[in-house]
Amino acid sequence: MAQDDAPPFKDNSSQRTDYISTEYLGIFCWLAVIVAAIGYYLWTNKLKPAISNRQKIQYHQNKAANAKKNDSSEALARNEKMLAARAKLQEDYNLNVQSYIEKKKQQDEIKRQNDILKLESKLLGNGRRLYDPDSKDKPDNSKAQNKRNANKTSWRDNYNPLTGGGAMSSYRPSRRSGGARGGGG
User: Fold this and answer.
1) What is the mean pLDDT of residues 22-30?
2) Cα–Cα distance between 71 and 90 in angstroms, integer?
């Protein structure tokens, strides 16, 4: 019965950790409250007014820049420059159109005259060459030259790319049978 008289087992380590955790929690809690109070004071008295002043200064600078940008005299000068540039471009375009129309009229006139000459030569029974000596439809009298070009080829008579023979090297890979070396076959 000696065992029944003994006091119940107490865990001193758990009491110690409880004490340490509550002590540190109390210290850090007060530290967090103090830091929050200092932060609130700095925000309301120092940072917030500085930020609002900076925003006001930026607003006034932007307003002044927009007023300068929209100044009527500068806007008029820009507008006049833009109109002058547009007028110059339109003038250049009109000149190009006029020159194109003139060229087109000349080409049409030449074509009309050629058509008239063709018709007159057909009515008179003359050949094509009489009305247009520079015609593209002119027959070619160089039959001998055409025959020479037809006989001439870029390949040699005995050309075979597998035989090698020429300026290139004639490399051929070895056979893969392997009979001389004793391998399969």
Assistant:
1) 77
2) 28
